[in-house]
Amino acid sequence: MHRDAVIPTFQLSTGTTITQTSPWQTLPVTPESPALDVMTDLTKVKAATIHPDQTLRQAEQTMIYQGVRMLFVVNEMPVLQGLITSTDLHSERQMSLVHSRHLRFDEMRVADVMSALSMLDAIALDSMRIATVSNLIATLRSLGRNHLLVMQAGAPGAAQQVRGVISRAQIERQLGQPVEVAEELAGNFAEVVRALH
Which of 43, 47, 61, 145 has the most CB atoms around it within 10 Å of its CB? Predict the structure, then answer.
C-alpha cells in the first residue's frame, strides 16, 4: 500500500460485539511444568492497584470488578507501598481494629490492614527461570502464603521492580486441583509480626 493511500472503511452493523480478552494463562500445567507458566507477568497484564486511603469496601469492589484477590497498594505510581488481599479484608486484624477503634467496616481504610513492604515475600525472576510449579507450591506452603511477588533487578543504580505475581488460585486453576496451604498458621504468624512492629 502506498504511504498516502487511504485505508478502506465501512459502517458497523447492529449486533457488533467487542472482542473479549481471553485468559492469558489457560494452558494446563503439571507440578513439573516451568514456574514461569503460572506467573502473572506484569509486562503483559496491568497491575491491579488501589490507594491506601481507599476504604476496605472500595478494595473489595475493586477486587470483584477486576477479578483478582490481591491489589498492589500505591500512593503514587509506580512506587509500591504494600499489598492487600481478600483475606486481609476479613482478617482477625481487621476485626480487632473494628472493636478497638469502634469503627464500622465501611470506615476502615486499606492502609489499616494492608501488608507493608517489610512483610512481603518475594522471589527473584532468575530463580523463577529454573524453578517448577512444584517448587512454587513448596514455597507457598513453607511460607503459608497465597501470593508471592517476583522481582526483577532494575538497571544499575535503579530500584528493583515487581515483574510478576504468583497466586495460589492461579496455580490451582491451571493444575486443575486444590493446593493446600496452612493459611491459619500463616495468618496468626503475620498478626504476631505486625504486633511486634
Answer: 145
DSSP assignment of the chain: --TTPPPP-----TT--PPPPPPS--S---TTSBGGGG-EETTTSPPPEE-TTSBHHHHHHHHHHHT-SEEEEEEETTEEEEEEEHHHHTSHHHHHHHHHHT--GGG-BHHHHPEEGGG--EEEHHHHHH-BHHHHHHHHHHHT-SEEEEEE--STTSPPEEEEEEEHHHHHHHHTS-----HHHHHHHHHHHHHH-
Q: How far apart are CA 48 and CA 188, in angstroms?
A: 26
Write the CB contacts of 20 (distance below 8 Å, at least 6 apart in sequence).
Answer: none
CATH fold of 35-196: CBS-domain (3.10.580)
Domain ranges of the chain: 35-196
CB contact burial 167-176 (16+ within 10 A = b; e otherwise): bbebbebbbe
pTM of the entire predicted model = 0.76
Position 188 scores a pLDDT of 44
For the CA atoms of 50, 174, 24, 89, what is the dihedral angle to 10 degrees? Answer: -10
| Chain CA centroid to CA 53, Å | 19
